[in-house]
Please model this.
Amino acid sequence: MGSAADDGRPARVRLDPPERLVRTIAAWEGEAGRAWLETLPDRVAGYLERWELTPERVFAAGGQISMIVLVRTARGEPAVLKVGMVNRETEHEYAALAHWGGRGAVRLLAADPAQGVLLLERLQADVSLRSLAEPKAMLEATALLRRLWVPPAEDHPFTSVADYTGALAGLLRERREQPWAADARPLIDEALSAWADLMAEPPETVLLHGDFHHGNVLAGERTPWLAIDPKPKVGERAYDLAWLARDRLSTLAARPGSRAAARRRVTELASALDVSPDRLRAWSLFRAVEAGVWYLSVGGGEGGELLLEFASWL
Model:
């Protein structure tokens, strides 16, 4: 932190991004990411001044494409400043949080959406649903989803699941032809076929979190558990459950009978939230294959192979 300026005002605070954020942004976003990282310390400093925030510390284990700073407001209240890259997945995070209004999700205190800057209520950043045993975590997760799945406003800005996954399906077809994807082609074909069947009968439209898993649910003060970091879409609930179906994947893969356990999890989640088990299986397959192939495309071989293995179990 800086010392006092010549005119007696505190000098602008400069905070550097954590190494984890630097690595992921550089690997995932390329030159655009590196350019964004260069301006990040000044952007953070500017919002600390503009919103009269006192920084406490940078949360090093924070977002993969956002810098998280634990702060105090001018009234001394704890809060979180989140400064992230704006892309098609993150551009409407603020709108989803505003629509939920703190019901089931972290409360939005202020936002500059065009710059990807949010001021949020402070949750217990080190305590997620992953701190609970899996059965209890799944119960809490499904209860929370029931609160988040609400009708969107008529003039909502959110992308539909159909449009979003249509673009992903196009990219998946392109990546299928790459030499490094040769072994995955049968799974890719199955995933694309499943997606086409899903698109033939889209059954409902609710506001979805879009990236719902145990790590994106943190302990709070006003209510035990609250969702963070949405990548909001509008569409069917089974889409939102697909990431939950493959949660704690490394642990699942290490168990005896992983294939049967994965299928059982899909069935149990579908029953718990009254969605079609066939549609949940199809979305789980498509989302795992798409993500796995994307990981392979950016050099994340281990993560990609694990996701593709999960998809093969389904």
About this structure: The first strand starts at residue 54 and ends at 58.
